[in-house]
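User: I'm putting together notes for a lab meeting next week and I want to include a structural view of one of the chains we've been expressing. I don't have a solved structure, so I'd like a prediction I can at least talk through. The sequence is below, exactly as it appears in our construct file.
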Amino acid sequence: MDSISVNKFRDNLKSFIEQVVTSHLPLKVTRRSGEDFVVVSAEDWEREQETLIVLQNNDLMRQIAASMATHTKGKGYTPTTGEMNEITGV
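Assistant: Thanks for the context. Below is the predicted structure for the 90-residue chain, given as structure tokens.
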């Protein structure tokens, strides 16, 4: 994660915001007297929140682990060609 001073951030606010939104990389802003902060796009913030919700859901994590185990053993469900076409929109 890139890090800049609050003064540089303030002086170039528009360009740094554009950089964060287009690159999808957070930007750490440091302050001499106070807590640092991180700038992220709204889209990235929402994605991170969704990930946290999934990771905190024990039932869902157990389902994912079970699915991974069957996939690793090659015993998972294999969709038919018709089902794959429906999934992929072909």
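A couple of points you could mention at the meeting. The mean pLDDT is 94. The domain at 2-40 is CATH 3.40.1620.10 (YefM-like fold).

User: Perfect, that's what I needed.
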